Amino acid sequence: MGRPATEPADGPLQALVAIHYSLGDYMKKHLALALALAIAPFAASADELSYTYVEGGYAQLNQDGEQGAGLDIDDIEAAGFFVGGSAALGETFHVFGGYRSGNDDVRVTALGVGSAEFDTDLSQFNIGLGYHHSISNRTDLVTEVSYIKTDVEIEGASEDGDDGRVSVGVRHMLADSFEGWIKGHYSDGDFYDGSFSASIGGQFKFNQTWGVVGDVEVGDDQSIFMIGARASF
Question: Is 218 helix (H, G, I), strand (E, B) or coil?
C-alpha cells in the first residue's frame, strides 16, 4: 500500500508548528536574559554602602537638667525634626552635614519661691569631612572630623556654643537590604567640654534608593534619637 494522500499536507503543517515553538522558546530565553541584565544593576546597588544621600524625619534632643544656686532645672526633652545629607568625594572621602531642632516646656524650680515652665528650644548644626576605607566586601571603617554649633533658647534668651568632634566607627551590611553602624565620638569646646559619646544606628532599604533610617547617640549628660527616611544615590 502507498502513503495516505493526506501525509504530504501534514508535513508543512508540522514544520510550521515546530518553527512556532522554536521561536517561542528562543524569545522566552532572550526575554529572561534581558530582564536579568536590566535588574542586575539595581540588585547590586541595593547592597552597597552609599555615601551620597539625603535624609530627614523626627528627632528628640535630650539634655540633663541642672541643680545649684537655689535652682532646680528639669531635663530638657526637645522633640522636633532633623534634616541631613552626605556627598561622596571620590572613592574614599565624603562631606556631610545636618540640622536638628526641638522644643520643650522646661520646669524651673526656685527653692522657697515656687516653679514655672519655660518655653525652650534646642538646636544643633553640624558639618564635617569623612574618610572611609573598606576592610571587607561588606564593611567600611569610617573616620570623621566635624564642627558642631549648639543653640539653647529659653523665653527669648539664648546661649550658644561651638565644638569640634572626632568620630571613629564601622558601617556593615548585615543583609542585602539592611546595614548597621556604630561610632565613638569625642567632642570638645563650649558646649561639650571634652566629653565622650557613642552612637548606634541602622537602615532598612526598600530598594536601591529609599530606606528607613534610625540612630541613637548617648553621652554623659545628653542623648539624641532620630528616625526618618533616607534617599541614597
Answer: strand
Decide if 99 contacts 121 (C-beta within 8 A): no
State the residue for C-alpha cell 571603617. Answer: 141
Q: Please state, in angstroms and rounded to a whole number, the distance separating the CA atoms of residues 183 and 200.
A: 7
Residue pLDDT, tens place only, 59-113? 999 999 887 777 888 999 999 999 999 999 999 999 999 999 999 999 989 887 8
C-alpha span between 17 and 31 (Å, rounded):
21
Dist. CA 219–CA 201, nearest whole Å: 15
> Strand (E) positions, the chain?
53-63, 67-68, 71-73, 76-89, 93-110, 114-136, 139-154, 157-175, 178-189, 195-205, 210-219, 222-232
Whole-angstrom CA distances from 9 to 4, 5, 21, 22 are 10, 8, 19, 21
The model carries a pTM of 0.77
Q: How far is CA 177 from the centre of its chain?
A: 13
Asked whether the beta carbons of 125 and 149 are under 8 A apart, the reply is yes
Between CA 171 and CA 135 the distance in angstroms is 10
